[in-house]
Automatic annotation (TrEMBL):
Alphabetized CDD domains for the sequence: AdoMet_MTases
Native source species: Loigolactobacillus backii
Protein name: Ribosomal RNA small subunit methyltransferase A
EC class name: transferase
The entry's keywords: Cytoplasm, Methyltransferase, RNA-binding, rRNA processing, S-adenosyl-L-methionine, Transferase
Keyword match Glycosyltransferase: no
Transmembrane segments: none
UniProt keyword rRNA processing, yes or no: yes
HAMAP family given in the database record: 16SrRNA_methyltr_A
Length: 292
């Protein structure tokens, strides 16, 4: 391969771009650039991209993943918070007319408006990104809480967070984040990624995670906010029983105790259990029983 045809995601080309622009990494933005084409291909394979897909990318960096997305998808809308990277991306991605880069913070963006303004609305939407470790959870929850009609989310994240998202009830890492995500999404860890393929090298390994909308739910929360409040409160003090966490959440007066007892009895959940022993369906049924 001729030198000017090297993918952005090769280590040599990444180093060349960084040196050309004198770019230093911002720890505050969690910048770790992926420098292994095989891993980029793994992300693309997991997302199963075709020209029927429009893609939203969060944090394109210098464009290593963006380049691969542009070669396969119909359109790519990339959100980059670091103003320094905007002219670099204009250079590295100059050959791809189906890429739009916006200098915005995804946590402050109106995603529905961006999609309406920059995508044609005729293609299914997928989110594909290498997420900064320090804001992985806020970004995921932002995506799930948005009105964005996406068919799949494929993201690279810290391995520890990926394992929390995919955990089964009874697992020590199963928690409120697990329930919040799995209530809405099927979570699959597609590939474990060693820390050695990033520049600069992080302290931990990563994982490629695929999230797709669940189609197997037989029950849903009558009030999602009440459901979310119950889940967070139930895990507030993990070593305490569900009963003690419920009392701390809802109150300890006699009428509340009676109501909680009746709700637990109705859904056949022992008050002595701990939150991590409850399935997502248990939480849904309990939330609906408490908030009748």
């Amino acid at each position: 391969m001729a030198e000017d045809e090297r993918p952005i995601g090769t280590r040599s080309r990444t180093r060349e771009i960084l040196d050309t622009y004198g770019l230093s990494f911002k720890k505050s933005l969690g910048q770790n650039f992926l420098t292994e084409p095989a891993i980029l291909n793994e992300i693309i394979t997991t997302a199963d991209l075709t020209t029927t897909d429009d893609v939203i990318e969060i944090g394109p960096g210098i464009g290593s993943l963006t380049e691969q997305l542009a070669q396969r998808a119909h359109e790519v809308l990339a959100l980059e918070i670091d103003q320094r990277l905007i002219p670099i991306l204009a250079d590295t991605l100059a050959a791809y007319k189906n890429v739009t880069v916006i200098n915005q913070d995804v946590l402050k963006s109106d995603l529905a408006t961006l999609v309406r303004d920059h995508l044609d609305g005729k293609h299914q939407i997928k989110v594909v990104a290498n997420l900064p470790y320090y804001i992985t959870t806020p970004i995921l929850l932002r995506l799930l809480d948005s009105d964005l009609d996406f068919t799949q989310i494929v993201v690279m994240m810290q391995r520890e967070v990926a394992e929390r998202l995919a955990a089964d009830s009874g697992n020590k890492v199963y928690g409120s984040l697990t329930v919040a995500v799995q209530y809405r999404m099927q979570v699959d860890i597609a590939h474990i990624v060693p820390k050695t393929v990033f520049v600069p090298q992080p302290n931990v390994d990563s994982a490629i995670v695929s999230l797709t909308k669940r189609t197997d739910c037989t029950e849903s929360a009558n009030d999602f906010k009440a459901f979310s409040r119950l889940v967070k409160g139930s895990f507030a003090k993990r070593r305490k029983s569900l009963w003690n966490n419920l009392l701390a959440l809802y109150g300890k007066d006699e009428s509340t105790r009676e109501h909680l007892t009746a709700a637990l009895t109705a859904v056949d959940i022992s008050p002595g259990k701990r939150a991590e022993q409850l399935s997502i369906t248990d939480f849904v049924r309990l939330a609906n029983a408490i908030n009748l």
